Protein 1
Amino acid sequence: MMIERFEEITTEEQTAVAEHDHTVKVCVAAGCLSSQSDQVLDALKNGVGEHRGCHVKGVGCMGLCSQGPLVAVESKTGAKSGSVMYQNVKAEDAPDIIQSLGKKPVARLELKTNVPFFQRQTKIVLENCGEIDPERIEEYIAVEGYQGLLTAVTELSPIEVIDEIVRSGLRGRGGGGYPTGLKWTTVAKMDGPTKYVICNADEGDPGAFMDRSVLESDPHRVLEGMAIAGYAVGATEGYIYVRGEYPLAVERLKIAIRQANRLGVLGSKVCGTTFDFNVHIRLGAGAFVCGEETALIASIEGKRGTPRPRPPYPAEYGLWGKPTLINNVETFANVPAIVRKGGAWYAGIGTEKSKGTKVFALAGSIQNTGLIEVPMGMSLREIIFEIGGGVPNGNCKAVQTGGPSGGCIPADYFDTPVDYESLKALGSIMGSGGMIIMDDSSSMVDVARYFMEFCMTESCGKCVPCRVGTVHMHTLLNKIYKGEARRHDLETLEKLCDLVMNTSLCGLGQTAPNPVLSTLRYFRHEYMDLLVDGAEDGRGATAVDAQLLEAQS
Amino acid sequence: MKRQTQARIITLKIDGVDVAAREHETILELAQENNIFIPTLCHLDGLSEYGGCRICVVEVKGSNRLFPACMTPATEGMEVITNSERLRLYRFSILDMLFSERNHVCSVCVSNGHCDLQYLSAKLGMTRVEVPYLNPKVDVDASHEHFIMDHNRCILCQRCVRVCGEIEGAFTKGVMGRGVNTRIIHDLNGAWGDSDTCTSCGKCVNVCPTGALVEKGKSAGEMVKRRDWLPYLRLMQED
């Protein structure tokens, strides 16, 4: 029986932990690895060779990526029991850390954890990130992992599982905010027998790294979510579409799938029941548009990754024409906790229409760059100034949310609660969770130009407005930024925004004008200042061509 | 209960005209049946729908969104508008995009006078292009014995790609690159003349709406595409 096996593993793990007085955790997610945390891990492992009662392990992301490599020490005995965190650790610091075990912590490396960055977060998706070794299924099981799946397949009917998700009020975390329960119901109602579950891990927004961190830090959580989804909608095959730029995430997913298959929580006869669920990995080849669900499906099928008009939605006609459930990494990562603790518990967190928590990646001009998870409804001000620690130099000007499909929200609106509806009302979107903070030195025209360039190069070329419209918009933004444009150019730009937004085929084109529209809405003066004839008297403030204008009159 | 196999019949309004339809029929099919004009470029009867040119977008009452007529199935009680002022302006803009994207110089084009793009702009009453031309440098592939692929005139409607794969079954034509750098290619981006898979059937040339695919030896305005066999496309696919 699977439940006894789980208990056995949990006991083994707890005994192992009990044997050690100190546990040293080193972050081995991509952020810290890029500053050589692997060397820190090796140095610590070699160093503790003679130090009994100490266990060194690699764990997932601890959140504060800007201070990496991060090391956390948990001690049960000695002068300082409890946990200590160290920042910017180098391999040379390993002896000092080992020396300090059970004594006073190394002061020069210590990172204070009683700050809002750690205190104000509510962790559901990230609860195991930075706690467990992502490459060992035993550690995941010891923290109640795969309990949700076991409960679902042995005690609940598929309809009861879906009910739990509906009750939780969970909405799609990929950006759209479509009710997850409704999506599951739709797929469950479609005729079988062949259905598919797809996990969208093609995270492409500039400055966003939530999905990568979850996959690198807690891959089993996503697999568990997918398997529960498969059971609920009646699918036996699952695909994870990961972008090829995430080799570490792919590596850890492969290990996780192998371990889960061996233990019997995935593959044929999941947890000893009659339910089969196999998970396959598919790699993206670097196209942003493949994050769009219909393009993603085409890409898995081996075709050119271009979107097609919906309806029919994938729930009806998806992978190889079969009903397909497609959710984002973070959505799946929420599922195990919901099944384990109940939908009502989840619905108790967040706002009326946006339940639960959301993971955000803080980037740009901010003190604490990193990964955070907060309840829905927290204000932008709290996120940026309290958790994020504010802007290091100068004033905070705006925050860009939702990547190339989102918009810029000026500092005046920072008291807005973060939920799907409020951000939409401000002309931005929740998006997948990237937050880029900009200070006084950023030109909003430049920001709009950057995102337009991104959309232009990432347009798949299928539909005319997006393929050509983005090029014209980029040319115009360039012209404005260089101070060579006139008022009629701005009018043309606005007209093109309207065209591309309304006539494009997929979400990429339909939302491509958003960065321009939102900066025009809140920072129109910046555009006007750059126009040759922008100011009221017919002269631009920057007036590159002021003399020219004079010569003409 | 036995499942219904007969398609349900529904009724809807297109431009105020009541029309009856089988479920799953598209708005475009219905409009054509009822002699209501909706401009199209990438659509061709008998080929799979592509939905890329966006010229056939229509409005549906009660929704702010625009729908491509070629791929939107009719639904009961739907009220479709095919010719509002808003749509007229969007269609002009889409033609602007197409004309500005590559080098469409009608006066020297072999398809002058026999071109779907040219015909459509005249029919819609287009008089000028409101955005600057991009004037890209693109190639002409004249390596094939009988045909020429002139990328200057290509609007990427992919009729040639679809007819090559779906009807001829040769899969010679494909697509490469993205955004404005998208190009129609032959096999693995080799010269057309070197293609082992091309059967030289000429279907791609005759379905091409512009002067992008033409026969060799034609001078300006001489390339008249043979369209008499197009009604059989649907039959060919059914076989």
Protein 2
Amino acid sequence: MKLAKYLKPYWFFVLLAPLTMIGEVIVDLIQPRLMAKIVDEGVLGKNLELIITTGLTMLALVAVGGLAGILSAAFASNAAQRFGNDLRNDVFRKVMSLSLQQTDKFTTGSLVTRLTNNITAVQDIVSQIIRMFVRATMQFVGGIYCALRISGSFGIILLIALPIQLFLIFLMLKKASPLYAQVQEKLDRVNSVVQENVTGARVVKAYVKEQHEIGRFNEANTNLRDINLTVQKLMATLSPILMIIMNASVIAILLIGGQEVQDSIGVIGGIQVGDVMSAITYVTQILMSMMMVSMMFQSLTRASASAKRIIEVLDSEPVIKDGENASPTGETGSVTFKNVSFRYPNSAGRPVLHDINLDIKKGETVAVIGATGSGKSSLVNLIPRFYDADEGEVLIDGRSVKDYNLDTLRHKIAFVLQKTELFSGTVAQNIRWGYPDATNEEVEQAAKIAQADDFIRSFADDYNTVIAEKGASLSGGQKQRIAIDRALIRRPEILIFDDSTSALDLGTEARLHKALRENIQDTTIIMIAQRIASIKSCDRIAVIENGTIIAFAPHDELMKTCETYRDIYSSQMKNGGNENG
Amino acid sequence: MAENKNTNAPIVHMGPGPGGRRGGPGGPMVREKPKNMKATLGKLFRYIGRNKYQLIMLLIVVSLIAVCNLAGPALQAEAISAITIDDFQLSVDFDKLINVVIAMAVVYVISSILTYIQGITAAKLSQNTVSSMRADLFAKISYLPIRYTDTHRHGDIMSRMTNDVENISNAVSQSIASLFSAVITLIGSLVMMIYYSPVLTVVAMVTIPLTLVVSTNLSKFMRKYFVAQQTLLGQLNGHIEEAVTGYKTVMAYSKEEASINEFSRIAAEYRKTGIKANIWGGVMGPCMNMIGNLGYLLVAAVGGWLSLNHGLGIGAIQAVLQYSKQFTRPINEIANQYAQILTAIAGAERVFDIMEAPSEPDEGKNPITVDEIRGDISFKDMYFSYKPGEPVLKGFNLDVKQGQKIAIVGATGSGKTTVVNLLTRFYDIDSGEIRIDGINIMDIPKNTLRHAIAIVLQDTVLFSDTIASNIRYGKLDAADEEVHAAAAMANADVFVERLPEGYETVLAESGSDLSQGQRQLLSIARAVLANPKILILDEATSSVDTRTEMHIQSAMVALMKNRTSLIIAHRLSTIRDADKIVVLDGGVVAEVGSHEELLEKKGAYYRLYQNQYAGIAT
């Protein structure tokens, strides 16, 4: 198994756990002999002293065995927990290094399950294997040895019972393992229906589709129940069959044992009743250990589905690789697109962007405008390397973005997303997220520029107000302004707004633009916007249509030369434009 | 209760700052500790009781198995005594041995069959219980007020649905059976021991108080760490959820390292607690084993003495020894299951927490049908606050006539969306009233009310299904032609038809593969198909470019004809032909009038307008 390497650093524990367990198992194996001795020599021999001494020996042994058992549990849990911790850290680190196209493909819901439930499942199985598997194996081998020492004829019983049992277990697991994969699948389906309903509760209610959704859920739920039942029914057959084998062996031992006791009457050192009794205990132990192993395999099959999902994450190499160059560049803040083409991975059809050429100078304010789906967002997504261009290159300060160390690159940029993500914590913490060392004054200063100061102060705890469930209590515009605040506090060289003022009313937006102009002249600003009024005053405006830039000039010039732009303009200014000239 | 719970939920911080609060054992942060075990257990059993027959069947089978298990040692003792060679009888009693062995075989076969039945019944019982619990929970969630989903962590609701219910399932299938069987075995072995030797029975019982004392004390320790472990796991999962769903933001701010560090911190703490919990868990077994052996030894010693002095048969001693082992086993088992049962009860508590949260009130009894609703709306003296003390609407008044097109404008946070939330009864007003056709909306059944309204939200909601089914959400029985026509009306047909599979394209998780604007067009198509009496567009075209919007405009005009429409928009071009424009300011209506009237007034609207068309240009 591929995940085994995570146990390597803890070989010490992994090794010690079974070693100490040997102590426990040896005691378990000796115990029946001592018990037999108590019965054979003590009780039958009417030797009370022997009962006491043997008993005390037994008790001492059990104490030692118990201690070994505790130690072994401690070692095993150390190994398993540390294993799980390392694995968890690695998988999380890996997820944090994946490119967006990869997280899109995995889907966030599934990544969360992989990081949580699946890792816990694997960790549990590791701890089980270390403890139970080793124990079962030792009990098995030791049991056989002890049983054979009593009488070779008991070996024949084992020789018959064991292969049958092995075969049955094997057969069962082979049938069950594909079913477990199906269980996982159906469970995912149930989860996704719930997820959609919790996040989309407003729409479900608005369209009075509660019953419809309940129907959808019940279908998924019933499927899950059915597949679970199938697996459990299959597994329910295993244990009675194994029990029959076990008990048949016990009967066989009684019969053979009885015969041998008869034969050995008068033979000194021959087989005795106590021997038969301990033989029963041993054989039971052997077969029980087999049962334990079979249970383990059952869990293993289940866990291997989890392991596969984890390995899938670990094995995916980030598509976007870190560049080498971390050295500062001479000038700061220029962005150049050279013959850039881009299509989303796995999407058929035309590229989203093609033949993009664009040269944005330091300190310039540039707007990108264009129809829905024309590729505006995709264009700016290429700058911080959320995605990589298929052809051509994107340069910042004259250096290809691919050559930058990602951290250096993204520290130059502050990107305000279309969809605002706030995290649990206070407003101030969310803002400071952009720049942890910011002083309170800086936070407020940035908030003033972002036009957020006023409404934040209207909260009961102003900057220390706790944001609930991703900002559900805030309006869309408030969330956007906190996000802008967060971006401003970074003092970026390049500031990108991906349609991130869409929920602001015009007055607020106008004030935001004015404040930006007055306070951060040196920063290059690239903004996607819908409203011409918002972008009119930009230094230059790129008009994008069907994935390519058809014009890039100031507003006045575009009005003269670009028909599409005039169209957009008139769609917004139809009458108002004339009135206000 | 529910509200309290929310404030107690662990808060996981993403970034720097003081870091996540630690869930100390026993503190107010601990969520997994069952608060009211008795009540929760009662409710849980009522649930299990729904599958009464399976439960009874299971209990019967379990008792029969326990009886078989008790018969086993008795027969084995008989067999052993058949082999035992006394001083008087110098051979093994083979006739007796054969008879006993046959009896044993019969018992074993029966017990195997019963075990099989038990397995099947337990599986059915637990699966049925769990699936009906999930179904009930989901139905409950569907009818919870929006306030609930707005104020509770979605991840937490999800985990109740999956993890907690799963834990209950495990407990139901395993713990119930084993607890019951433990009790039967306990009683049974006691009876058998007394049958064989009352004196030895007393001896065997000596260790029981010891067992109880040790196991309760150990459990206390276990539970402490166990609860802490669960709390930390919750924090860890919370962090994962935030980091993964907000990954693009994390990436944009190159916060990966910070996020990883925070993760490692919680994970390390989880690891430490986990190791401790497991070690304490590991102590239980050996301790019980030790006590068990002590008991064994006592029985053997006293038994030996009795057989020496009072001629107690070896078979009886052997039997009592076996039974005394069976006697301690159930106690161990209960102790071992303790953790599992505890998790299940904690889980059940969290599940019932949702189940008992009040559903959306729906007390409307007015028999009006959707078709009868015309669409006059009047808002009177509406007051509303999401949080007490922070009113959003303070005396909102507005009259809307059937078929009118009303636009609501105002600064961000002025309460525009709140008006929509109240009209659809996502939230209920604190005071004042809303009437539709003169009927208070509190009196209209919610289904009727919402059927009469179609709403397009700024944050679009799409389901991971085909595009056609997503549009059809407005009207489930719509024919393909209707769906296509609705899409065409919303101008969504252009991009849909360009997709390789057209309307049958399956959207990724919540439609994340479409642009925001495209998603909005699909929601508009959905509303078109629903053909409502009242149409609400809440920033429905904010991400659609203005030219596309213009294309939709004519369709919108057609769509709004003969129905009352409420439009919330920032773009004034979107709303200028509205019959009435309502300017909201500070939770009250500042101005009402048509575009021209309001411009002439040179008030708030005029200023907004200036901003949009002239303000920035200078």
Protein 3
Amino acid sequence: MTKAVYSLQQHLITRTVLLMIIVFSVLSAGVWDYASRAADLSYNRLLNSASLSIIERISVQESQIDLDLPYAALSMLELAPDDKVYYEVIDHTGQHLTGYRKTPSPVDYQPHSDPQFFTAKYKGEVVSWVVQSKLLIAPAANGWVVIKLGQTRNARNELSGEIFFSSLATLSGILLLTTLLVWLGVRRALQPLSIISENLKNRSPNDLRPLNTPAIKEVVPLVDAINSYQQQLLHNLDTMKVFIADASHQIRSSLGGIQGQLDVTLQASDTEEIRSRLINIRQQHKKLTRLTNQLLAHALVTHRSDSIEPRLISLNALVEALLTETVRDQAHTQIDFSYTAKTDDIRIPGDKVSLKEALKNLLENAVRYGPDINQIDITLSPCDGNLVEIIIDDSGPGIPGHQRRQAIQRFSRLSSDVSGSGLGLAIVETVIQAHQGTLKLERSPSGGLRVLIRLPGAPL
Amino acid sequence: MNLLLQRLALIMALIPHAMLSHAEEATDQPSSLVIFSATDTSAMQPIIDAFKHISPAIKIHYHEFQTNELFNAIQQLPEDQLPDLVISSAMDLQIKLVNDGYAQPFTDPVTETLPHWANWRNEAFGFTYEPVVMVYNKPAFQGIPLPNTHEKLALAIRSNNDFFMNRIGTYDIRLSGVGYLFASQDEINSSISSRLKENLGRVVTNLHCCSSNIIEETASGKLVFGYNVIGSYAIKYAQTDPTIGIIFPEDYTLVMSRVAFITRQARHAENARSFLRYLLSLEGQQVIADKSGLIALHPNVKGPLTYSHLQRDYPLRFKPIPLGPALMVYLDHLKQRRFINEWNNAILYDVFVP
């Protein structure tokens, strides 16, 4: 079982919760600010009403400033039932007139008739104050009379706490709900994944049907990809099955043929007949050997293409050596070989053994499937884009355009009358692909088959 | 005000020396409890005795003052000589002291039975329920209808000047803090208080320092009517002297409560809390109802001198004076000067000057 690096669900939910915590903190700060301002606003209004009712009872009588402190002023402040109240009235000369002494003032207070609110400590307690002034215009008293009225903050703190905590309760409720919804949403969104994995897990190895396409749009591509991958695997498996079936059939029929020939030969007494049978047996045996060699060669190049590090090799030398071998083998036939190299020293990175095998197959094919009087031309030339071109032309019957693709597949022989393994071009293609090259089948100038190979050259 | 200042000077001359010895004595004993009180010792003694009975370890040093003396003493004494518990019937002065920061909070389940008007900030606690009543001489009023509201009293005085002339008594608000409180509460609660004052002045009302004086003189026949006297004293007096009649005015009957607070500077705060807890508890309140002659506030206390009893006998008229900063309005010295001036002009009206 694959070890999971992280859970998408956990990841999403953790992030959501973190986000919610951040949102919660930010909103809490906002709510706290709002709650304090709301409480201050309410009680400042109360304070201001009281200070107004005091200020309008200031009068000048017999050249003396007098204040008739209204009962309502302090009794309305009892709306904050647990708060202490302080007040001071300062006359136009700046002298204490009545009330508490040495009450605080805002910094740089300039008397004016608008109320000014501030918070300052008095008698060891934090007190919210309003300061307001009244301009007296009288011969005896000319100037600003200042009234300061303060109230401790119990009621304000209680109110702001109440607003804060009730808002916070609502807020936490909403955030919890959101988190829950996100959790459900994530689970719901990831559910198709578990359905698919359950589906795959519960399948028997023999069940090769494609997965049902789900109703969810976003999951369709995934299922399609799985199905297409499965189809590819099935196809490869099929090819492999056919290959094995074909190979075993080939080997069996060859062995069967040889067995039959041997049985008949054992019965024969005539020397001539024995000889002709032996020649048959030899033919069959040759065919079997070639088939076995091709199978091994195919396995070899497949293996080498996976495991061998490419080295710089001289293509000229390779082709020349191969040609020498082939010409020697075909000396008794009427097949002519020609070799043209545009450059003397063409080097490419590659595996010498595989390449030699591929080219050898091509030459053998040209010989095998061509007519008895054949002309085979090999051309090596560098071409554009640091590529190297290898062309092998023959003057045989060629392959019609629509069969060229099929020709490259394993065990596909276009005609059954000529002995062949059906592996030749498949081997070639495997090698060329391993060298990042291309293989093309075309028509040669003489009407036969042209095999055109392009391989990447040595790095510049 | 001059009188007050003179008294203050007198107190300042006497009290610190007297207090100093007690304070030192108290400091040395962690089991002490220093109480400054403006309530008759005779009324408080039964409660103190009952408390001593359940907490014998606590030594109570009880000092009696006049209300104004007590107020000045608390403000003038150095911190280390302040008492642990302050008790006074002058509710306004007590509130002023609490507002000035002389009190510390006392939070205890026992305070939950208190009506909200008798508890300010969990610092000042009212522990009695004493109506402010009118008293009259029963024989003198035979055949004459009783003025059972403030309005009727004003009318009766006006229509029967000769009967009341020189025979009505009330507090001299220049001398008595409680008298001043009652007069200012009349001003707040009644629209006819000025008219009543004018009429009281017209018949040359006698002015007294204390409730007991008014009650005694009314009983003796020297006065026929006493206005604004402490109900508990009147009830107690009437129990032994049938000549005294009591009127609980039907329009409104003010209710005064004696107020206690624990000082912030208390050196025996734990003892003070024990005492205050006892004072407000059902047991303590029962002692008040049974023995002190004051009237208990606790709704579950049984007996004639209790809140529940009064409510039953005289329904729908009681108007407790609520504890709160509004009580400080009439302590503002400009307000006080103005109020006393008005009172002087009304009460000290000279009938013989045209």
